């Protein structure tokens, strides 16, 4: 039995309606949970980039990549280990403004966690933090003691350390 | 090499003309060379049907009696001709009724374009009358799908649909068109699609992999080929034959690969799989190099994967990269269209004849003959066997017929015993195992290949799933020969119940109607055979008829199909009884 690892899957696709459905269906059929998903523009015009986080065996992820690449509107799909990528998550905390005024500790927390205040009014302020999943979770636990009014986090986004030869591939494929 | 007529070339790029979306759909079909489509009208597709009325001299629409029948007919047409089958339906239930056929086409790689009408774009998502999210529903079972909401999208999307359906590993495509898009007028111009940026239909061939494959094959002492439908879809029958003949390799077919090589070819050693032949199944676990050509190692072929050809080096000639290493780990994967890869590999192949190794297959064939085939084809006991019916069809058709089968015992018997002299002669529902497939598929096959005899072999269960398509035969006069092997059981399920569920025949007994009366109700010639001595004449009479013909053969009720590899068993554990 091979062991499960966290893999980041990067998928370059045409920017068309319905692709998220096609891609998620591949995971659904195999009863595999997607830990997080992010879809955004890529470095190439009219090409979207999906970044998915999954916890599977390497054999499973290879087969999934094959199935994903079969989709007509998928240009190329890759999978990477954590070690092969630089990755981040982003999160926002909504906290009471009173905390900022009355609690000396909060400024230290903001400085030490390398988070930043991005919005403030008389009732609440919003703290933004980018980092690894662990860093985000650590800050959550610290702030939780002081009362969090709202919390939201993004999916993982990742950049590979090695080259991802999609631009070259696109040059080869007739536009 | 395809030779284009002047008319075809003109149709590839049309000059701009202002027309409605509905007329554009028809013009797109004509531009793609479609002259026949199957379907069922309804509210949301009425504008297109109205245009079909106008174009009926160029584009023949066949009204099936159910949308499922339309898809299976389109599949039968596609499988018999190698062209794209087209099916059309309205929104909502019309569209959902297509799904079984679409799923069948997807798993059996059949090129098909389905067109569905949809409620007006302003109503989408409002649960309007006969609205379903057919794009969402069909996503897992289509190669590609798209919803058109504006008329000006029609030409490009239709061109893309046909290109995707027929290229690479073929498959079904669904195009959903909202009603407003069918009414809108726009400047129509048609250009055939020849590429899609993100889509590489045929992977690049690697000389390195061909050299590695050839080296393994040349050095093999006990090479064994298992070929699949990829040979037929790639139109590589001649290249495949040359390949196995030069290297002298015993070769077995998958269910869908049947007819790519004549049944009586000296290197044809039968069919692999759950109800395949004894020798190729058994010797899969004896070969030293297993060469898979255009097949996908379906679980019905491999049985227990952990005990499948573990001793062999595996070479896989395949067009779909996702199939490589999916089920069976390969040593060498040769990607590409087999027509090309086999051609390139051929000159490097060492001429060989593996006579002793081939003899091992023949020795086991004799075991199968004594234990199974003799009783199936030359029975001495009273009840009619399904095998002897197929034998009579072989004799009457001289192996030239297209044999369309449904799903179940009769399917396996027909696959085991039908003789094929030419390619595209075996049409069956393989991957999905769709009961109800054969009758409409036979209609499509006959219309696609009117010069050929088309015999649909169907069980009493599957026949009743799409029996209403007799109405389509009545209306179109498609001269299909229908043979129902009636054992008054859902035979294959009953066989499993007998073998694995202590003969508890839960809901497999069929109380059947008077099939002859039904056929006659549709004004079809019909006959029933209950005795062996009447069989040959009845089959002859059916084959000699110039019209559609229904023949019911009352076969032994509790006959079983052997050999058999029970689910989860190894291919070498194939049972003879």
From TrEMBL, chain A:
Chemical reaction(s) catalysed: 2 pyruvate + H(+) = (2S)-2-acetolactate + CO2
Residues in coiled coil: none
GO term, biological process aspect, one: L-valine biosynthetic process
Keywords per UniProt: Amino-acid biosynthesis, Branched-chain amino acid biosynthesis, Transferase
EC number: 2.2.1.6
Pathway assignment: Amino-acid biosynthesis; L-valine biosynthesis; L-valine from pyruvate: step 1/4; Amino-acid biosynthesis; L-isoleucine biosynthesis; L-isoleucine from 2-oxobutanoate: step 1/4
Pfam families, A to Z: ACT_AHAS_ss, ALS_ss_C
Principal EC category: transferase
Top-level taxon in the UniProt lineage: Bacteria
Domain ACT, first and last residues per copy: 8-82
PROSITE patterns in alphabetical order: ACT
GO cellular component: cytosol
GO molecular function, one term: acetolactate synthase activity
InterPro entries from the UniProt entry: Acetalactate_synth_ssu (IPR004789), Acetolactate_synth/TF_NikR_C (IPR027271), Acetolactate_synth_ssu_C (IPR019455), ACT-like_dom_sf (IPR045865), ACT_dom (IPR002912), AHAS_ACT (IPR039557), AHAS_small-like_ACT (IPR054480)
Family per record: Belongs to the acetolactate synthase small subunit family.
Subunit details: Dimer of large and small chains.
Function of the protein: Catalyzes the conversion of 2 pyruvate molecules into acetolactate in the first common step of the biosynthetic pathway of the branched-amino acids such as leucine, isoleucine, and valine.
The protein's name in its UniProt record: Acetolactate synthase small subunit
Species whose genome carries this gene: Tenacibaculum singaporense
Taxonomic placement: Bacteria, Pseudomonadati, Bacteroidota, Flavobacteriia, Flavobacteriales
From TrEMBL, chain B:
Pfam families attached to this UniProt entry: TPP_enzyme_C (PF02775), TPP_enzyme_M (PF00205), TPP_enzyme_N (PF02776)
GO terms (BP aspect): isoleucine biosynthetic process; L-valine biosynthetic process
Annotated Thiamine pyrophosphate enzyme central domain residues: 210-343
Domain Thiamine pyrophosphate enzyme N-terminal TPP-binding: 20-135
Essential cofactor(s): Mg(2+); thiamine diphosphate
Entry's Gene Ontology cellular component terms: acetolactate synthase complex
PROSITE patterns the record matches: TPP_ENZYMES
Thiamine pyrophosphate enzyme TPP-binding domain residues: 406-553
Transmembrane segments: none
EC number: 2.2.1.6
InterPro entries: Acetolactate_synth_lsu, AHAS_TPP, DHS-like_NAD/FAD-binding_dom, THDP-binding, Thiamin_PyroP_enz_cen_dom, Thiamin_PyroP_enz_TPP-bd_dom, TPP-bd_CS, TPP_enz
Sorted UniProt keywords: Amino-acid biosynthesis, Branched-chain amino acid biosynthesis, Magnesium, Metal-binding, Thiamine pyrophosphate, Transferase
Annotated catalysed reactions: 2 pyruvate + H(+) = (2S)-2-acetolactate + CO2
Pathway terms, separated by semicolons: Amino-acid biosynthesis; L-isoleucine biosynthesis; L-isoleucine from 2-oxobutanoate: step 1/4; Amino-acid biosynthesis; L-valine biosynthesis; L-valine from pyruvate: step 1/4
GO MF term list: acetolactate synthase activity; flavin adenine dinucleotide binding; magnesium ion binding; thiamine pyrophosphate binding
Cofactor note: Binds 1 Mg(2+) ion per subunit.
Entry-linked CDD domains: TPP_AHAS, TPP_PYR_POX_like
Record's keyword annotation contains Lipid metabolism: no
Family: Belongs to the TPP enzyme family.
Protein name: Acetolactate synthase
Organism listed in the record: Tenacibaculum singaporense
